[in-house]
Structures are given as C-alpha cells and as structure tokens.
Design a protein that fits this description.
CATH architecture of the largest domain: 2-Layer Sandwich
Number of helices: 4
Strand order of the largest sheet: 1-5-4-3-2
Helix content: 25-40%
Strand content: 15-25%
CATH topology of the largest domain: TATA-Binding Protein
Oligomer: single chain
Distance between the termini: 45 Å
Radius of gyration: 21 Å
Largest sheet: 5 strands, antiparallel
Structural class: alpha+beta
Number of strands: 9
Length: 195
Amino acid sequence: MAESRMFLLNGTDIQAVVARLESFLRTEKGMEVQSSKTTDGFVMQASQSKDAWKTITGMRLAISIQMVIVNDQLNVTIGEGQWSDKIGAGAIGLFIAWPLAITAGLGAYKQKKLPSEIFQLIESCILSGGQPIIVNSAGAAVTAGMTVCPNCKTQISAGSKFCNHCGTKLDNLCPNCGATIVQGSVFCAECGHKL
C-alpha cells in the first residue's frame, strides 16, 4: 500500500529536495539510488545491493518515490518497497530456523519506518529552504526565522501558534501578563515571570 503526503514548497527548489533525499538514501541507508526527472516532478527508485545474506534474512530495504509538483505544492507518494524477502524469511523462521523470524521482523520494522523518515527529511528540507542543516554535537542548528516545537522537536516558523508537524499548541503569551514571549524563553521579558 502506497503512502502519500502533500508539502507546500514555499519557493524551495525541488532539485535541493531530490539531492538531499538521494544523499540520505545513499549515505544513511546504504542504498543504490536512481532518479529521473519527469514532466511534472521526479521518480526515484532505491534499494540496497542484492546481497544474498540480506535477502535470505529479510533485511534488504527497497523503496520507490514519486514526487509530483502542482503549482507550489509537492505531492510525494512512496510505494510498497521490498516485502517478499521478509515474508519468506519469516516463514522459514517459523518452521526451520527461528533466528530468521527475528531478522525478518527487524527488516519489516525498518522497511515500515522508512517512509516516515523520508517524509520527515523532505519536510525539514523544505522548512530550511533547501539549505543544508548543520549538525554539531549539540544537535541540528536552528535555521534563521525558525523555532523548535517543544513536543516533536521539528523546526517550525517562528511565531506559529500550532506546530504544523504534530499539532501541538504553542503558547506564545506569558500566562502572567499576556505579553508575547519568544519561544524557548525561560522568563517573560515584560514582567519577569518564570515560564
């Protein structure tokens, strides 16, 4: 079953999104990536190399991604991926070699988690305007004009009333005096109330 999400590009170049996604799949997931420009966006296929051991144990990842641009919106559809090896390894694991059931379960978990990782990567790329996010030992640097949601830790536009990723209501007013507070403040700048 395919999963789809719609993103507002806000002027972000689609090439930056494609490049960031290709880099993520190659470096962090060890996948071979092929992408092609279409009349209305991009199509991308990615899979880990055909390694007999990964296939037998059900640990091989594969995914297909279709990105369609309509006006300033990006519709991303992520296909099924690689499930046949996980089913086969799980079946063999149940009847012959029980460790294969464990590796097949782990492979299924990683395959199921991959679309949400891709959606989150696309969203962060768009939120940063296609600019690379610098990560240091303290974590990702917050892009100018952005703030971090206290619930899901996603970068969102400064001054937002709700997180556009998890829906958390963001309290931008001091509970004591009602003055506008800067996200992340420990004390109110108007009355000094501890937040």
